[in-house]
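Any chance you'd type out a single protein's sequence alongside its tokenized fold?
>
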Amino acid sequence: MSVMCGYCNQPAALVRGPAVYPHRPDLRGLQFHICRPCGAWIGCERGTTNPLGTLANAELRRARMDAHAAFDPSWKGNKRRRGERYAWLAERLGIPRAACHIGHFDLAMCRRVVDVCLIDAVRGVH
């Protein structure tokens, strides 16, 4: 599978954890796709070379982490509820459930995730 960078249109290289996280021995066995020319990267599903989303630069990685931080507490620890919450999020974002994957979101969509989750929290809806 060839992964292309959406920033510079160059092919990404498949690397092991130390290439991305040299200070994290717990990630040594994981694989990542990295665009060497621009530094964008994405992790792979455990035990595969399948990317978890699209390549992301530092700004987009931070936005995706913020989106997960806002959204994940609503389902963490309850796998059954996870699907329900992703369906809720997709509805709130006005996108199909199949397209609701934070690893594929751009900056604007990540910010929308944070906003809808904050509104949900303020309203006390869980």
Notes: The beta strands are 13-16, 31-34, 41-43. The radius of gyration is 16 Å. The first helix runs from residue 17 to 20.
